[in-house]
Amino acid sequence: MNRLELFDTWAPEGAPWSLWAKPVLFVDDSPVPAWSSQDWQTARASARWTPAAMAETVLVLDLPGPRALVVALECATRGWRPVPLFNSCRGPGALVDNDSIFFGLTEGAPLLREASLPESAPPAFVLDSRRVDGAPAPGRFDNRWVVFPQDFPSATRLLASDLRRVLLVQDGRREPRADLAHVLLRWQRAGLEILALDLAGDASPAPIAVTEPSRFRALGYRALVALGLRKSSAGGFGGLIPTPHAGGGFA
Fold first, then answer.
1. Which whole-number Å values give the CA distances from 39 to 12, 47, 72, 105, 109, in the listed order?
2. Dist. CA 123–CA 58, nearest whole Å
3. Domain for residue 246, yes or no?
4. Which of 15-29, 33-47, 100-114, 148-162 has the highest average model confidence (pLDDT)?
5. The whole model's pTM is what?
6. I need a labelling partner for 187 at 20 to 30 A (CA). Which of 168, 204, 216, 240 fits?
7. CB–CB of 179/147 below 8 Å?
8. Are 222 and 125 in contact (CB under 8 A)?
9. What is the mean pLDDT of the chain?
10. How many domains does the chain have?
């Protein structure tokens, strides 16, 4: 399966939520990383959670990359369409491990095809909770990234599709991360109910009130947040941190 076929599997033409899938990892033509099938199967075995069927519901899976993918694939068996939002590149010495995510996208594609989802399937937006982890240092590939409201459909778009509830799935927390709170609070104020589930402790989803994050709806918010990150010329985030004696550094 070539890169275009792989992207078409995860973001098929005709499925309305494919418009939000990020192509960054799919256009990377470097070799598939040496993450073994056994590692992938182990990740699958540790992430067998899937939600009970919930009408009118959008999923937001904010979990460590490989686990987010395997949970998303399990959710596909319940009728949700995974929408990968991974928005940074792979690179040598990367702060965020996208190799395991790329392997998961490749290994998971046949499983997603088998799900035979209808075009109208509701979305399960898939994020990597490690997206801002790592300590920048000279010579490292800084591919940390964040999400913005523009990375998701608007509340109006969701409501027009009869989606009136959002289930946020995390591991070890219930409150959304700061960047995601900018999205969820907009949805909540527009009338969508926000539920949260902590896989580390909660027995079932429960409603939350999203706290207003710093700089909510502030002019220049996107520019201010991205100021400390490195954009890639190939799209998304990712660039080499120059050493003190070197210039340049953007991928």
1. 27, 13, 17, 14, 16
2. 6
3. no
4. 148-162
5. 0.90
6. 204
7. yes
8. no
9. 88
10. 1
Please check whether residue 222 is in contact with residue 210, taking contact to mean a CB–CB distance below 8 angstroms.
no
The verdict on residue 49 lying in a domain is yes
DSSP string computed for 163-218: --EEEEEESS-SSPPHHHHHHHHHHHHTT-EEEEEETTT-SS-EE--PPPPTTTT-
Q: What is the DSSP string of 117-163?
A: --TTPPEEEEEETTTT-S---TTSEE------GGGS--HHHHHHTT-
* Residues 150-207 pLDDT 10s: 999 999 999 999 999 999 999 999 999 999 999 999 999 999 999 999 988 877 899 9
d(CA 55, CA 163): 8
On whether residue 74 sits in a domain, the answer given is: yes
User: Is the Cβ–Cβ distance between 192 and 154 less than 8 Å?
Assistant: no
At residue 242, what is the residue type?
Answer: P
Query: Rounded to an integer, what distance in angstroms lies between the CA atom of residue 49 and that of residue 242?
Result: 42
Rounded Cα gap, residues 4 and 118, in angstroms: 20
Structural domain including 215 reads 3-240
As a whole number of angstroms, the distance between CA 62 and CA 81 comes to 15
